């Protein structure tokens, strides 16, 4: 809001920017929650990648908005994809770690999110004091979501590789057990035949 007050001094009702983010975030939660129901398994991560990409790009677009309507449009899009990020966080955690560890995974995620949310505003304030504008702070704020989204693209591949390895290991163990059972059956049956031939 400090940036909006500085950049668009003549505008009235500047608080509409926050309202736009809030409204479209609510719409995004409903919309992307429904969309996520149709996306199978770990592929939900790609929705998260999409939301990170748009959040990062919209953060970088804020300093480029010369008119207030443009800023509102950017905030509407940012809010929509913020809703996407929030709504599919839990389903992705469930798909990746399973029902038993999902609470711990979400706890770790929210714990890590609290670090930039706590440190970010003071850093933005320092940049504003030293550089005279918030522009660099918004550009820098857009980088982590873009990098995070790029890294998230690898998650489905790593997860499927891990699942393949587990299946192969489990398949090998099952085969070994089947062979052991077959050998024990053969030994037992040969013992029975020997007893029958002795009698």
UniProtKB/TrEMBL annotation:
GO terms for cellular component: basolateral plasma membrane. The chain crosses the membrane at residues 16-33, 45-62, 68-94, 106-124, 136-158. Residues 1-199 form the Major facilitator superfamily (MFS) profile domain. It is found in: Membrane. It holds the Pfam family MFS_1. It comes from the Eukaryota. PROSITE patterns: MFS. InterPro entries: MFS, MFS_dom, MFS_trans_sf, Proton-linked_MCT. Keywords: Membrane, Transmembrane, Transmembrane helix. It is a multi-pass membrane protein. GO terms for molecular function: transmembrane transporter activity. This is Monocarboxylate transporter 10. The lineage of its organism: Eukaryota, Metazoa, Chordata, Craniata, Vertebrata.
């Amino acid at each position: 809001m400090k940036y909006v007050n500085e950049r668009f001094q003549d505008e009235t009702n500047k608080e509409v920017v926050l309202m736009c983010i809030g409204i479209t975030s609510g719409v995004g939660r409903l919309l992307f929650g429904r969309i996520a129901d149709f996306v199978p398994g770990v592929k939900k991560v790609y929705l998260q990648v999409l939301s990170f990409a748009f959040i990062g790009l919209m953060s970088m677009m804020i300093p480029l908005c010369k008119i207030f309507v443009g800023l509102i449009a950017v905030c509407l899009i940012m809010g929509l994809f913020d809703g996407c990020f929030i709504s599919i966080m839990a389903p992705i955690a469930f798909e990746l770690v399973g029902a038993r560890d999902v609470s711990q995974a979400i706890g770790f995620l929210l714990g890590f999110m609290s670090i930039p949310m706590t440190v970010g505003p003071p850093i933005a304030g320092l940049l504003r004091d030293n550089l005279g504008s918030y522009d660099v702070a918004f550009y820098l704020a857009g980088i982590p979501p873009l990098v995070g989204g790029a890294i998230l693209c690898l998650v489905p591949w790593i997860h499927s590789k891990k699942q393949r390895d587990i299946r192969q290991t489990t398949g090998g163990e099952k085969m070994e057990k089947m062979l052991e059972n077959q050998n024990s059956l053969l030994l037992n049956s040969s013992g029975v035949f020997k007893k029958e031939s002795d009698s």
